[in-house]
Specification:
The chain has a 7-stranded antiparallel beta sheet, sandwiched between helices. The chain has a 4-stranded antiparallel beta sheet with strand order 10-8-9-13, covered by helices on one side. It has a two-stranded antiparallel ribbon with strand order 11-12. 31% of the residues lie in helices and 21% in strands. The protein folds into 3 domains: 41-95, no CATH class; 144-262, no CATH class; 269-403, no CATH class. By secondary structure, the protein is an alpha+beta fold. 21% of the residues are buried. The protein has helices spanning 3-7, 18-23, 41-59, 70-83, 86-92, 110-115, 159-171, 235-244, 257-263, 281-284, 299-302, 330-340, 368-380, 398-403; strands at 150-151, 174-178, 190-193, 196-211, 214-225, 229-231, 248-252, 269-276, 289-295, 317-325, 350-351, 357-358, 363-365, 386-389, 394-397. The protein is built from 14 helices and 15 strands. The chain starts with a helix and ends with a helix. It is flat.
Length: 404
């Protein structure tokens, strides 16, 4: 038998080339799957609003954010959050087929309100609405009693704080928690009200006022909202709104409520950068090896007896930079620095004096000048647009990387 005989006859019905194979695939079995389209923040916002629109189409009314029906209350709160943000309103106008995003103007006076009563539902034959004979009552601090939102002219001072807080929520160092009451409304705290993040920038002096015939102590706040507006509402007023509208506190993950109040976002600390003085060749030969750490006390006290600790590579260290932070949670700043330089973290197992293995977690191979730059970008909130290029040993804009 020849080699040709062993192969056997060729089936003429079997395709003889690639094109023929593809042409014969009538069921599309060889089609490459379509690459899923990346969902953007705009897509998620539009989908969320379309759920509200569908509720309006189905039920003939807008969802109620105060109902006990959880699904409807969720949609109602979502609509409230959208209405509190001008940028979201502008982005969703093209989907608003029922005019859900149009906020009606409030009547300028009682006469205007009654003038719109075409069915005379508010007709006053008894004269109950006639107040012409009543004495005029002047409320205490009348002109200053109602706090309205206005544009925050120095919002650039606070914008980076909101970016940092969003970054903390994203990486898990901060979390949303239920509002705990008036005592938690302190300077430096962040809350979420109707889907909008707010920051208590200032708490004014305590003033004693007569409310309901009784003396009551009140404090004016300076509240900054992430949409670029601010309000000077009373501390008690903000507390009431957070309770009634199921607002939330933003707290540091792992801390109790009392610890969060004491630590707060206005707390200060030290971000320090160290250089190892180790004589171990595998450490001494590494150029630009730095430890990035955080302490609330003095750096000198923190690094005392460094030569006995694997955290400091069992060797003395030198302080090469010490950054004092204000109105910014230093632990979050430290965490962001670790994320930026994660690709150049020292991969080394160290043994302590008892022979136990330990992996130092805060040592990075990066130039001090780049660490300085990263801290500035974190404080400004722009660090999200950069990444560290370990080959070039510099921070690179993500936009320029995509363009390239």
């Amino acid at each position: 038998m020849t080699s040709e005989d062993s192969v056997g006859p060729v089936d003429s019905a079997f395709p003889s080339n690639i094109d023929a194979i593809l042409d014969s695939d009538v069921d599309g079995l060889l089609d490459a799957p379509e690459k899923p389209v990346k969902v953007t923040a705009t897509d998620r916002l539009e989908r969320a609003f379309l759920e509200v629109v569908e509720f309006r189409r189905t039920h003939g009314r807008i969802p109620d954010s105060t109902t006990r029906e959880i699904a409807e209350r969720k949609l109602g709160a979502r609509l409230d959050g959208i209405l509190a943000n001008e940028e979201k309103i502008a982005a969703l106008k093209h989907l608003d087929e029922f005019g859900l995003l149009e906020v009606p103007e409030a009547p300028a006076s009682l006469d205007d309100l009654l003038g719109d009563d075409d069915l005379d539902l508010l007709g006053d034959e008894s004269g109950l609405l006639d107040v012409s004979d009543l004495p005029v009552r002047k409320a205490p601090d009348e002109a200053d009693s109602v706090a309205k939102r206005k544009k925050c002219l120095d919002f650039d001072r606070f914008e980076h704080l909101f970016k940092t807080k969003h970054a903390e929520l994203a990486d898990g160092t901060a979390q949303l928690a239920s509002f705990k009451g008036l005592r938690t409304v302190t300077e430096g705290r962040f809350f979420v009200l109707n889907g909008v993040m707010l920051f208590v920038a200032e708490v004014g002096e305590t003033r004693e006022m007569i409310v309901g015939g009784k003396p009551e102590q009140k404090q004016r706040l300076r509240v900054i909202f992430e949409n670029g507006t601010e309000s000077s509402m009373y501390r008690q007023s903000l507390s009431i709104r957070l309770f009634e509208q199921e607002g939330q506190s933003i707290v540091q993950t792992g801390l109790s409520d009392d610890e969060e109040i004491l630590e707060g976002d206005a707390a200060s600390g030290h971000i320090y950068v160290l250089r190892s003085l180790s004589t171990d060749p595998q450490i001494a030969e590494l150029t630009n090896l730095h430890k990035i750490g955080f302490t609330r006390g003095s750096v000198e006290a923190r690094i005392k007896n460094a030569e006995t600790s694997p955290t400091y590579l069992m060797a003395p260290v030198e302080v090469v930079a010490d950054y004092r932070t204000y109105n910014l949670r230093a632990s979050a700043l430290e965490n962001l620095l670790h994320r930026v330089f994660a690709d150049v973290r020292l991969d080394l197992t160290q043994a302590d004096r008892k022979g136990r293995n330990y992996d130092p977690s805060e040592w990075y191979v990066a130039p001090l000048s780049v660490i300085d730059q990263a801290i500035d970008l974190i404080i400004s909130g722009d660090i999200v647009s950069y990444f560290y290029d370990r080959e070039a040993q510099r921070l690179v804009s993500r936009a320029s990387d995509h363009d390239g």
